[in-house]
Amino acid sequence: MQAEEIKTLLQQQIDSAEVQVEVDGSHVNLVVVSPAFEGLNPVKKQQLIYGVLSAQIADGTIHAVNMKTYTPAQWQQLTVNS
Asked: For position 7, which CATH number holds?
């Protein structure tokens, strides 16, 4: 699966998501920033992303997902401090 396809899926399903995707075979690295993450704990954020990618994970197209999830405020704080 191509990075652009994954990015499109996530942007269609997660409100106002800014998505960065790197694909290495069946391994996917994600950075997702969205206001949809407001008030969610890390597990709920992961579940939201896994829910979008569940079909691709189930059929083996995606074997492993490494994700970093941020609210817009968290992302702004992170980028200001770097």
From this structure: 3.30.300.90
